[in-house]
Amino acid sequence: HFTTSSVEATQFVEASWLFKEFRRPDKLVHYVVKLIDNLTVNNLSTENVSCLNTCLVILILARYKNQLESVLKSLSGLAQGEPVLLNLVELLRFWEDHYINGSGGLDCSILERSSSIPFSCWRDTVALLTRRQNLRQNAILYYCKGKRE
Q1: What contacts 24+ positions apart, CB below 8 Å, involve 136-140?
Q2: How many C-beta atoms surround the C-beta of residue 58 within 10 A?
Q3: End-to-end CA distance of the chain
Q4: What whole-number distance in Å separates Cα of residue 3 and Cα of residue 49?
Q5: Alpha-carbon distance 101 to 10, whole Å?
Q6: Of 80, 78, 74, 72, nearest to 131 (Cα)?
Q7: CB distance 141 to 89 below 8 Å
Q8: Which of 56, 65, 80, 90 sits between 20 and 30 A of 39, alpha carbons compared?
Q9: DSSP 3-state of 145
């Protein structure tokens, strides 16, 4: 389970090529950009929402490894950084409307079961990232000049 650790899980994570990739903050930034580069709220669908959810898993993992601020700062430093960050905020607010405020009850349990990440981790990470007030370095809008709503 995501919040517990075992020797077997630790060994798997340490041996996994994919998890080695996800330990590198530069790779996290690369994957976040690739996953949401062509996504917008207007073209989000059941066929591509997994890209947004995968991006969010990366950000959840970064949060729990105390790398979230580093990932957001790196995203903001990219040439296309601010547009990517603003798009991510819009996508995450849409995600929040669907999964938390809307009719996403069944989808919430599917996310939790398929990822072994408690839904509270998903919800809390999205709330942190999309914060509009009392901005800190773990909020996306902290890195967007003049767009702090």
Answers
A1: 137/69, 137/72, 137/73, 138/63, 138/68, 138/69, 138/72, 140/72, 140/85, 140/88, 140/89, 140/92
A2: 19
A3: 36
A4: 24
A5: 35
A6: 72
A7: yes
A8: 65
A9: coil
Tokens found for residue 3: 């919040």
Q: Determine the pLDDT at residue 103.
A: 66
Contacts of 119 (CB under 8 A, 6+ apart): 108, 109, 111, 112
* Block residue for tokens 């669907």: 98
Q: How far is Cα 63 from Cα 9, in angstroms, rounded to an integer? A: 19
pTM here is 0.83
